[in-house]
Structures are given as structure tokens and as C-alpha cells.
Design a protein that fits this description.
The protein is of the alpha/beta class. The chain is built from 12 helices and 11 strands. A 7-stranded mixed beta sheet has the order 1-9-8-5-4-2-3, sandwiched between helices. The structure holds pyridoxal-5'-phosphate (PLP).
């Protein structure tokens, strides 16, 4: 028996498919392909679920970052803090609006942005904005970051691309009153489209018209250079129907994580702090090895034993990316995290039997270490 990293067959089961097919057929009959009723219904429901005042759908998660940077009036040459350990898109979006990414290190024990590093980096670089990332779905403690940013006039964009199901000290990701929060609905995320889609969540009313205008060629406002980043009606229908089960699925991920913690505490790898058990979305389940060599051989062993896994979340820090190698800032801990993590299957359809088999095989794979 093979245990793949993701399970689309059960996610897109018969019940879901028949609801979706009916909706898609209606969209075709109505010819309402852009910004249709599912867009508005999803935006309203998802905003409610995440305790945000507004939710606006856009083309994808990276666009959501770029549009947020523009809406906050980040200009070419402005410096924006990004974690030195994140998915490439976080830094890419900053470059794409002409701003300069400055790396902020992550914590040694948690792969999340370090407030101490942020303070040091800001004192040298005078950041205009910061993009904290809830990496792997782990919640960043946002109140201390908010306080520092408010005192220093730094705008906050939370990258919640992996954080559907994550709870910070404000509540569900999206509920921070001071930030714009972005989501990605790429097919492998917890809440996923069947193609590309993303969203921006926020409280500030003055942002709504601006973001709506930027995502749709500057329409509705004078003097805006926008772009096309509309979310099509098909994807909105997919997302709308998936909302029905998302809380159940995210709860199940937490249960799987709990079982993993019970069964994997003696492996030759580190698990993240147990304080995340109830608050992470468990978008990914990382095992941290001593170094890249150990992680690489562990990954090969797991593959041999039928356990889907990847070393690519995240194999390089931003400093180690060719196109970003000139970035300034701090990255020591990020470099030590990079390449030393192996992610194993965590999805809502793993049964207790599956978890038993997976964990036994994992421990067996490493009996040589
Ligand atoms: C997936 C992801 C993105 C980008 O989302 P896309 O929809 O692929 O553009 C941005 N940041 C993080 C942390 C992600 O995981």
C-alpha cells in the first residue's frame, strides 16, 4: 500500500462532484463566467468564517500579495521585510511591484519570523511593510508583531496561503484588524480550487474599493493602474462547495497531527512544539532532521517504503535562491532549517489504521539511524 502526500480522490468524491457539476452546468447556461453569484457568496461566507470584515477573491495567492502591496502604496524602492524561510512567491511578489525584499530571520526552534530579527533588520533598513508567513500552517503570535509595526509605521500583510484552519492570538487567520491577509487556493492547499485562485481578507473599509479596482483594470476609481486578477466563476463555485466541509476536514487534520505526535515522539527527528497541536492548520507535517544529508537519505528511505514525502518544503532559504542572493538582512536560522525538513502525508482522509501503518513504517525506516 502506497501513501501519497495528497489525496484528491476522496476530496473530490461523488457527492462533491455532483453538486459541482450542477453548478458548473448552471454557470454555462447563464453565461456568467466572471464575478458571478458564487464569487459573492464565497466572499461573504469565507469572510465570516475567518472573522474578517471583507474578503475579495483574486486570481491566485501571488497576485493577492502584489495587489495588497499596491493597495498599501508600497512603491518602487521601498523595503519590505520577508521571512528568510518561506515559499518563493512571498519574496517574488515584492520584487514584482518594484520594491526591495529584505530578509528577516526565522526562529531557531520554529520556522516562523523572529520578532528580534525584525527589530534589528528594521533599525538598519527602515521597512515600509512586513509579510509574516504562517509557514506549514503554524500560527505566528501576531499581537507583539502588530505592536512593533504600529509603533514604527510598518504595514502588515499576513501570508496565510497555508493557513486555512490556523488560529493566531487574534483568532482565525484573517481576523487581525491591522493587516491585509492573503490566501492561496492552489489545488494542494487546505482549501483549494481546481485551478488557480486567491483572496485578500481585511477589516479596513477604505481598502475595499481600492482592491476591487486594482483586480479589475482600475475600474470604479479614477487614476488607478490596475491589472486583471479576477477569479472566474467556475473556481468560485468549486470554493463555495468546498466551504461546506472545510471545518470538518481541518479538524480531522488536527486529529491526525495529534496521532502522529503520540506515535512519532521517539524518532530520530524533531517534531515542532506541541503548543501548535490545536492552533496549526497542519497544512504540512514537517519532520526536522539534523542536516540536509540526513533529511535526503530519510526522504529516499520513506519513498522506498511507500510513504509519499518531500524535502522541497523548503529546500532553500531565500538567501540561497539565485535571484535573491543579493538580498540584505538576516538568514542564519533560515539556512539551517532549509533542506533539513521532510514533510509526510497529512490529509483529512487518513484513517487510524493508515496512521498506524505510516508511523510504523517511518520508525522502521530510521531504525538504522
Ligand atoms: C502557495 C503559496 C503562495 C502562492 O500562492 P499561488 O496561489 O501559488 O500564487 C504564497 N505564499 C505561500 C507561503 C504559499 O504557500
Amino acid at each position: 500500500m502506497q501513501y501519497p502526500l495528497y489525496n484528491f480522490d476522496q476530496l473530490h468524491n461523488q457527492e462533491f462532484k455532483s453538486k459541482l457539476k450542477e453548478s458548473i452546468s448552471k454557470i454555462i447556461d447563464d453565461g456568467s463566467f466572471i464575478e458571478g453569484k458564487f464569487n459573492f457568496e464565497f466572499e461573504e461566507k469565507f469572510a465570516q468564517m475567518q472573522c474578517a470584515k471583507h474578503c475579495l477573491l483574486v486570481g491566485n495567492g501571488t497576485d493577492a500579495l502584489e495587489i495588497s502591496l499596491k493597495a498599501l502604496e508600497i512603491r518602487p524602492g521601498d523595503k519590505v521585510g520577508v521571512p528568510a524561510l518561506t515559499f518563493y512567491a512571498t519574496a517574488e511578489a515584492v520584487v514584482n511591484v518594484g520594491a526591495i525584499p529584505v530578509l528577516v530571520d526565522v526562529d531557531n526552534e520554529e520556522p516562523l519570523i523572529s520578532l528580534e530579527s525584525l527589530k534589528r533588520v528594521h533599525s538598519i533598513h527602515n521597512l515600509k511593510a512586513i509579510i509574516p508567513v504562517h509557514l506549514y500552517g503554524l500560527p505566528i503570535e501576531m499581537k507583539p508583531i502588530n505592536n512593533f509595526c504600529l509603533e514604527n509605521n510598518i504595514k502588515i500583510i499576513e501570508d496565510g496561503a497555508q493557513a486555512s484552519g490556523t488560529f493566531t492570538d487574534f483568532g482565525p487567520v484573517g481576523s487581525n484588524p491591522e493587516s491585509l491577509t492573503i490566501f492561496s487556493f492552489y489545488p494542494t492547499k487546505n482549501l483549494s480550487a481546481m485551478g488557480d485562485a486567491g483572496a485578500i481578507l481585511f477589516k479596513d473599509d477604505s481598502m475595499a474599493d481600492k482592491i476591487k479596482s486594482i483586480r479589475n483594470h482600475g475600474r470604479g476609481l479614477e487614476g488607478v493602474i490596475g491589472r486583471n486578477s479576477r477569479c472566474d466563476h467556475f473556481q468560485a463555485a468549486v470554493l463555495f462547495h468546498k466551504l461546506e466541509k472545510i471545518e470538518e476536514y481541518n479538524t480531522r487534520r488536527k486529529e491526525v497531527a495529534l496521532s502522529y505526535y503520540e506515535k512519532l515522539s521517539n524518532g530520530p527527528f524533531k517534531l515542532l512544539s506541541e503548543k501548535f497541536l490545536k492552533t496549526s492548520s497542519w497544512h504540512l507535517f514537517p519532520l526536522r532532521f539534523k542536516n540536509h544529508e540526513e533529511a535526503k537519505s530519510a526522504s529516499a528511505k520513506l519513498t522506498e517504503n511507500g510513504i509519499g514525502n518531500t524535502i522541497n518544503y523548503y529546500a532553500k532559504s531565500m538567501k540561497q535562491e539565485t535571484a535573491l542572493s543579493n538580498c540584505e538582512g538576516e538568514w542564519t536560522s533560515a539556512n539551517s532549517w532549509a533542506g533539513s525538513v521532510v514533510c509526510i502525508p497529512i490529509h483529512p482522509f487518513l484513517t487510524e489504521q493508515d496512521i498506524n501503518n505510516i508511523t510504523l513504517r517511518i520508525l522502521d525506516s530510521f531504525s538504522h539511524l
